[in-house]
Amino acid sequence: MKISVSFMLLLLLGSVPASESVECHLASAPDIYAALRETTASLVQLKVDMAAGIAQLKTEVDKLKKQLQVRQIAFSASLVVEGTSRTGPLPTETTLIYKYVPTNIGNAYNSNTGVFTAQVRGAYHFEWHFAGDNSGGSAGWLVKNSQKVFAVYEQQASGWVGVSNGVTLLLEVGDVVFVRLVASSLVFDNFNHHTTFSGHLLFPM
Question: Is the pTM of this model over 0.90?
Fold first, then answer.
């Protein structure tokens, strides 16, 4: 019985043409090519996505760098670059223009106008110092926009006078801060830079 079954299987296998057997093996080849094409397309798309992601990341990094630069704000200035200068007394209050600017990180201080302009909302600290002599009192205001904030004043019968003050202010973008000399008073400066105006951003808000 076993012999007859085996013989029948051999007959059936022998009856299948050789060409059909080859076709069965070759039938899987198109599937492989399709899979390769799909994989290649996926790799190409992945490369495109990665390039787009890298470009977006670079844009974000550049944006953060610019924000960091804006938040680096500090300046110091005195009235004259060289020589000797007495400013005042004058008939009206006058904005002092500090021409010698050794430090102006962020370029928020304008040496042509004497005005500091806030570039970012935050807390700022300012200090100003007046030097004078016995020919007249030395007095002035720190002004925020049009508001007088803190004053300095000193007068004595003889010798040199010096007076300082400082303040921390919350500024909005575009707010301006400057120092104004009181009418009928004076300030003195020379190459030693006695009369000064300084400020810096403490922290953004």
Answer: no
